[in-house]
Amino acid sequence: MSKARLLRLSAAIAAAMVAAAAAAAPSAQAGQQSQQSQQQQPSSPVAYRAAVLHFTGDPSAGGQSYEYYEDGVLLVGADGKVKAVGPAGTVLSNHQNVQVVDYRGRLIVPGFIDSHVHYPQTEMIGSFGEQLLEWLNTYTFPTEKQFGNKDYAKGVARTFVNELVKNGTTTALVMATVHPESVDALFEEAAKRNMRLIAGKVMMDRNAPDYLLDTAQTSYADSKTLINRWHKRGRALYAVTPRFAPTSTPEQLTMAGKLLQEYPDVYMHTHLSENKGEIAWVQELFPSSTGYLNVYDSFGLSRKRSVYAHGVHLRDDEFASLAKTGSAIAFCPTSNLFLGSGLFDLQAAEKHGVKVGMGTDVGAGTSFSALRTMGEAYKVIQLHKAFTDNPAEKKPLTALKSFYLSTLGAARALDLDDRIGSFKAGNEADFVVLNPNATELLKFRSARATSLEEKLFVLQTLGDDRTVERTYIMGKGQ
C-alpha cells in the first residue's frame, strides 16, 4: 500500500472515531455543541431543556411563589425574549420543529441581578484591615483617581463585565467614579454584550481628596450630559449617584434632586446607614436632620427607583419611610461582614414592606458570585440569633428567598420586573445555566439533596463561578 493511501486511510479512520465519540457522548457534550451554535443570535426560537426555576412572588409573603419544572423548557424567540416556559412535553408539543439545546442535569434560573457594586473597585477587592471610612481613604479614593484616563477605565470595565458574566450576573446597578469618562467606558463595554446595566457618575464635592472632587454645578452638568448620552440607549439606564451624604454639600444634593425632577425615569443610587461612625458623621454634617435617611428625603431623593446600599442600622421609622416612598435597599452581606459594619435586618425590612435586592458591593464585597453572596447572606441572618434574648423570633433566610432576592426581588427593587427577573412571556431572556455537578464536593452533596430547597441551599453554600456553566444575555450565549 502506498504512503499516500496509508495517510488517507488513517485520516478516514480518525474522522470515523471522532464521529462515533460525538454520537455516543452524553447530553452534557450535546449541550456544549449546541452552545457553540448559540454564539450568534439565533434566527428562530430555541428551546433550552433542563430543570427550570423562576419566581412569581416573594417566598416570605406566603402562597405559591415560584414555578419549577424538573424536566422543563425555556423557549426563547429570535428577538431574545421569553416565548414560553413549562414542562418539556407541553412546550415542545406546542412548538414543534424548534432547535433544542439539551441541558438536562442542569438548572436554568433567571440571570442574577446585582443591586449594588462598584466597578472601579474591582482591582482593590480583598484589601486588608479597615472599617468603612478608613477603608475609603486608604484604598478606594487613591484607586479611583486613575479613572479620569478613559483607556485605563476601559481596561477595568472590561474585566468587570467579564466577571459579571462569568458569575451569571446579567444586570447590575453600578457606581462609577467622579469622572464622566468612567461612565462612558463602562456603558461601552456593557453594550458589546447587550447587557442591561444601570450606572452613573459619582457626585462628590467635599470630604474627599481634591483630585476626586467636582462641584455642585459641574456634577449637575456632567450628569445631565451623561443622561442624555446613555439613558435608554440600548439597554443602558442612568442613575444619579451622590456617593453618600458626607461627600456632598447641601448644594450638590439639591442638584441631585433637580436632576430627578427633570428626568423622572432615571435612578438614584447612594449609600445609607452602613456604619455607626458614618451615621454619627452625617448627624454632625446635617445637625438639623432627624436621621441619615431624612437628609436624603429633605432633598427629594427618596422615591421609586431610589436604591440605598446597605441600610444596616436603620430605625423602624426609617424602614417605614423607605416603604412609603417606594425606595429600595441593596443587601450586601459580604461587604458588611468584611468591613465589620453590622448585620442587615431583613426581617424588619419584610415587616415594613421595603423592597430589597441582593448586592455584592465589590470591592468591599469579596466576590462577584451571587451564589457566594447568598451563602454569606444566610450567615448574616443567622447571626441575629446571637444578639437577641429571643433567638426563635429570628427566622433563617431560606434558599428560596435567597434566589428570589437575586432575581425577581432585585428586579422589583430596580423597577425592572416587567422586563427581567423572571421567565414571564415577553421578558428579556437573560438566564443562567447552573451545574450542580461542577465540583466533586458539589456533585457528592447534590446527589444527597432530596428537595428543591435543599438543592438550592447546597448550590448557594458550595457553589461559585464554577457552578455557572453558561450565561445568556437576551438569548445569546456568552
Overall pLDDT confidence? 92
Query: What is the number of helical segments per DSSP (H or I, 4+ residues)?
Result: 18
- Taken from the alpha-carbon principal axes, the silhouette is globular
What is the SS-derived class? alpha/beta
Catalytic activity: guanine + H2O + H(+) = xanthine + NH4(+)
Protein name: Guanine deaminase
GO molecular function: guanine deaminase activity; zinc ion binding
Keywords: Hydrolase, Metal-binding, Signal, Zinc
Can you characterise this structure?
The protein is an alpha/beta fold. It has two domains: 46-110 and 423-477, Roll (Urease, subunit C, domain 1), CATH 2.30.40.10; 112-414, Alpha-Beta Barrel (TIM Barrel), CATH 3.20.20.140. Helix content is 41%, strand content 21%. The protein is built from 18 helices and 16 strands. It has helices at 3-24, 27-37, 88-94, 132-144, 150-166, 180-192, 216-230, 250-262, 276-285, 292-298, 316-325, 333-338, 346-352, 370-383, 399-405, 408-413, 440-446, 452-462; strands spanning 46-55, 66-76, 82-87, 99-110, 112-118, 169-175, 196-200, 202-203, 236-242, 267-272, 306-310, 328-331, 355-358, 431-434, 468-473, 476-477. Strands 5, 6, 7, 8, 9, 10, 11, 12 and 13 form a nine-stranded parallel beta sheet that branches. Strands 3-2-1-4-14-15-16 form a seven-stranded mixed beta sheet. The longest helix has 22 residues, at 3-24. The radius of gyration is 24 Å and the shape is globular. The N and C termini lie far apart (49 Å). The model is unreliable at 1-39 (pLDDT under 50). Pathway: Purine metabolism; guanine degradation; xanthine from guanine: step 1/1. It catalyses: guanine + H2O + H(+) = xanthine + NH4(+).
